[in-house]
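Researcher: Here's the sequence for the chain we discussed earlier.
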Amino acid sequence: MDRRTWLRLAASAAAAAALPRELYSQTPQDQTQPFTEDQLDAFARDLANKPYVAPEKHVDDVLANLNYDQYKDIRYDQKNSIWRNDNLEFRLDLFQTGGANYAFPVEVSTVEAGRAALFRYSPQLFNFGPLAKAPPPNSQSGFAGFSVRSQINNPAVFDEFLVFLGASYFRAIASGQVFGLSARGLAINTGQPGGEEFPLFRAFWIERPKPSEQRLVIHALLDSVSTVGRYKFIATPGRDTVIETETVIYPRKRIPYIGIAPLTSMFFAAPDAPSKKKDFRPRVHDSEALSMLNGAGEWIWRPLINPERLQFSVFVDKNPKGFGLIQRDRSFGDYQDLEAQYDRRPSLWIEPVGDWGEGAIDLIELPAQDEYNDNVVCFWRPKDGFGPGIGHRFHYKMHWCWESPVKSNKASIAQTRLGETKGGDAQFIVDFAGTESCEGCTPGPLTPTVTASGGEIKNIVLSQNPRAGGHRLAFQYAPSGSQPTDLRAVLMAGGRAVSETWIFRWTR
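Model: Thanks. This is the structure I predict for it:
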């Protein structure tokens, strides 16, 4: 966990939902219970027909008011890691409840041969540093979440690659990466009037893998005021870490605005969105753009911004083929941050499985005064929302990766840069890579098409880039009025698009 995660979750802590402890309230410590996916599905469906149960905090007084630094000083003792001595590919560590963000306990069970065993809490499982006072030995505070370790980088070392902690948030990395953006189980009413609702994962069942098995199966129960959901995650770490996800959502009531496969990230500054503060770093972001492959087969590249005020962008679609928040620039020189290592942060690509119907990919960008708060959210929003009485099923794969796993035959956007002319117009530079080899780019000339939803586009020039390869598109933009404007550019050849479609949100 980092400071940005802590700050982000402060807003969601008050929305926590309590899971009725029916599953284990009568289970002695030394006994197990039957567990199947169908059983969890039936439990979720039944729970959705019951009134919502308000949360109860379950944390000792000495842990209740921890700040970020104090909470970070509590570490799970890896001598107690689950499966540590079992010669398996995975190990599990747990997080202590504490502070305002993690005051609601999460049940964690392991499953073997169809039987679930609840892992019992004890403060002796943790090491409490000098900043965090240990609770009494008989404390029943509970666990706030868990992490998974595997030999993702070194055969001799079990490194953390997957973390479930706080509300329905989770994060993962691929080999060689450091943690960055997050995913969520579900988004409800994000950025809408009345405030956002934050569902929580209240219980997890983690299947014991077979010896040498390279994947880990995790089941989860999600609960909130509006809905109950059951999830199945199949995590396979590696050069790309893939988490195949199946979910069934059972609403307690109608939910008009709901987000599937939500992604949450941070964008603070870049050459096309420079910081107003002096900063030695050219770029400061976990993700640089929203990338989409829509149902019609169009590749869209939408650079992220740090706006002056909240911005919504809606990309209407039917049966999307994929979308994600991407960190395409991997040069340390473009970040110059040895501590944050933004060049090693993961991209996250969502690959829908099956038809998702009509809806939209919504992108929400919030103003950020610093880099410590996530200010970007995107997700798939079904056109008609969700209604109660039925289960809403979705299946998708999450690729925590260095680059998108779906390869395009189009010329790609290499970078966007923004300046200003002597006359005060905006000067845009958009570099395209792969124009020498993309499908349809040769033979024949490339022609740029540049449009704006308002204002005026001037002096469009496309030229080859002899230094970096590809082509450079330069144009000027004169805004009109104070309303946000969407600029759009694509390279054409022979009457068809041969590049990604570049879309930029201009705001004053």
